[in-house]
Structures are given as structure tokens and as C-alpha cells.
Protein: Lipoprotein
Amino acid sequence: MRSSRFILYSLLPLFAACQVWTPDKTDLNASTRLQGELSQQDGKLVFRSCSEQRRFSIEDSGNTGLPREAKTLFEDGASTLFVDLRGNFSGSTAAGTDGKLEVSKLYRLQNEGAGCDDPNFKRSIVRAHGNEPGWSVLINNQGLLLEQPGKPSLVVPYIAEGLPNGSTSYSSEANGEKLELWVAPARCQDGMSGALSNLSAELRVDSQVMHGCAYPGGSSGD
Structure:
């Protein structure tokens, strides 16, 4: 059975007034979603959150594949990576760090693009993008923003429908445009930047079908 909700509010003011998100200080006592910088130290991964300077050694307790994925991007020449993950902090402390971070879920891993300074992360539910042709979609509680090179930005209300397998559809037929974005849980890698995310995306605009990657935003509840 699908669950759905209809979103129709004042759209344009919200998209025009996005603010830079400043994460709260790391909570050492809870499983939480974190964004920050990933680097290498003595052959091991070290995490520093966007909001502070403490550094934590990484343990992939959830078998997310983070060490393997990071190794590939580091081999391409990156000195640091941006990572978006969920994890718990343990009491043990590795040499040269302030503790250990046990990673349970990986949302994003990238060596370029908006990271800690993403102005839209806090208010977004889903961010999706694709290449050839290029496109990007930002979804929040008040609407859907579609951007394509050479075309005017499109802001519309939408209906969200979720399926038991974790897939979600965001669809609209406003302004004479029939549009639907499907996102589904799956490892997805951007063919141009090499960035990784935990959702695949399929965008349908009228009869055109485009594929790409996506990740949940700060308002997704994930």
C-alpha cells in the first residue's frame, strides 16, 4: 500500500530564502547523522565533523563499504573527502584522535561539490541530479524545484507516495508539465564526479526519462 501526501504552499519565497546550515556540536551519546571531512592517518580513516575540530577514527560497524569507497576516491588524488553518514561514538580512543566513530549508514561520499557549506541541506527532503542531459531536483516541505541547463527553473507542488520497499515517488502535473521523480535505496555513483550516494533516481518529464543519483536531505527524518 502506498502512503501519500499533497504539498501545496507558498513555493517561491522558501526556495529564495534558504540559509546556510550550521550543524550542532557532535553528540557523543547518540546515534546521529553527521557531515564532515574524511582524511587518512597512518593508513586509517579519520573523521572531523563540520561543526568542530575533534577527530575520530572510523570503524565500519555497519559494513557500509566506506573504507573501500574512500580508498578509491583517495587513489584518484583527493587529500580529503566530504562524507555524510550515521553512526555512534564509542569510548575507546585511537592514537592521535579523540575517539572512535562506528559508522552504521553511509549517505554520501564525494571529493567535490557542496559539502559543509550546502545552503539547502537543512530544509531539503531529497536532492537528486543526473548528467547527459544535466538536471537537478530539490524537494522540501513546500515544493519541488527542477533545474536544467538552458531552461527556466520550475517550481511546483507535488504528491509524495512511498512504497514498502523504500522507494518514493514525487509527482506533479502543475503548470502543464507532467513530472515524476522516483528515488530508491541503492548504491549510486555519479559517472562524472565519482561521488557516491545511497539512493538511485529516475526523473520523468513528460515523455523524457533521465537517470541519476539522490540522497536524503536534513528534513527527511532519516
The radius of gyration is 18 Å. The CA atoms of residues 34 and 186 lie 20 Å apart.
